[in-house]
Known about the structure:
With 260 residues, this protein is α+β, with helices and mostly antiparallel strands. The protein is built from six helices and 14 strands. β10 (208-213) and β11 (216-225) form a beta hairpin.
Amino acid sequence: MIDIERIEEQIDQSIEVEYFDEVTSTMDVAHQLISDGRSTATVIIAESQTAGRGKRARPFFSPRDSGIYLTILLPDNPVELSKIGLVTTGTAVAVVKALKQFFPNTQFQTKWVNDILVDNHKVGGILTESTIKQGVPNNVIVGIGLNMTPNSFPLELRSKAGWIADDSNFNRESIISAIVNQFWLMIRGDLNQYLLEYEKINQTVGERVEVTLGNDKIIGQATKIAADASLIITDDFGVQHHINSGEVTKVMTPGGKYLG
């Protein structure tokens, strides 16, 4: 069981902590807190999720004792609408920075836009959501899910998903605290600088990609990540496409190393 008091001691005292043994999704809890009028920054932590989700409501397997599942809620949004895409890339950098404190010999990479990889397997995902009021985001909700160990992984997932540690010889409270603290630094820092750091650990640029946008597909070379965190793809006809993460259904790298 996660010791919430230890986390509260290690993070900024202005951040509230909500802990649950089991929820459908920490993102669901965050949205409910917004509806209930929550006005302070909050981190929601769960031991397990029965309906954990990623982008496009894809399921995120969230068993007890093998992962870290949390959502950070910022009801007083500090991010401009044009920079919302940078929150996901910035969070990825923040999470990797936190994890490197505990796993210095592990090489973490990212797959655009919200996947965290180890050995070309997905070990974590980030989901950024916001509600818009009068054309301006009035909150930011960021979900973070990490596969820490393979405990309880069904066989069909072991060939796709990865994990960060082979055993449980780590302190979840310290890792969660480090993630929250790194996120806090990021959200109040220069998001453009974090994008530069994201590019250094990103695996997608340079790969041939197949991007699904609803019923349409774009196939080509991922050439760059733009200043707003969109992915620039040059298709087989030489046409450039700026792909916003909110439009994407799926990104594949046929023939690439990514195994997810």
